[in-house]
Amino acid sequence: MQKFTTLTSRLVPLPVNDIDTDQIIPARFLKGIDKQGLGQNLFADWRYTSDGTPKPDFPINLPENQGAKILLAGNNFGCGSSREHAPWALAGFGFQAILATSFADIFYNNALKNGLLPIVLDAKTHQQLLEARLQDVSLELTIDLEKQTVALPDGKKILFSVDSFARTCLLQGTDQLGYLLTFDAEITRFEQAHQPTY
Question: S-S: 21 plus which of 47, 55, 86, 95, CB 3.0-4.6 Å?
């Protein structure tokens, strides 16, 4: 998992409410347990025609959105079944952060555990961002995880909250197990000093 410190990127607007995990990555692509290649099937039923041709008007297919690493989604993003493949597919496509007015709890936690930063915005800020992006397709935001801020186009910075342990893991570029393994020497010393008495 790569470290997440700051991110400056254009954003892809997809302001649809209640996008569920089956829309993010349809169930037919869940046969494997490998993350590789899932990004190709992100939003497959919305993104491609029945013969596999990319739909030219779907947001992530538009030329101006290529390479953007921030998704501007709607309310209750990631609802539905608790498949970890959803954040895998988003990250596999290249997204590093998702901005929305709310997230489904399980998706939110799965995203954090897989290097994808979900940020909750209030409705007013979300609408302002959407309007600004519609006026300027090259609009960029800067997300600073260390300071927990999003720098808006007008220079204003908004604060966001994120679980402190998840934040530490993202900043270090590690998952929960990787974080625990950084204490391997201390764990070994403790075990050696506290031999079983049975």
Answer: 86
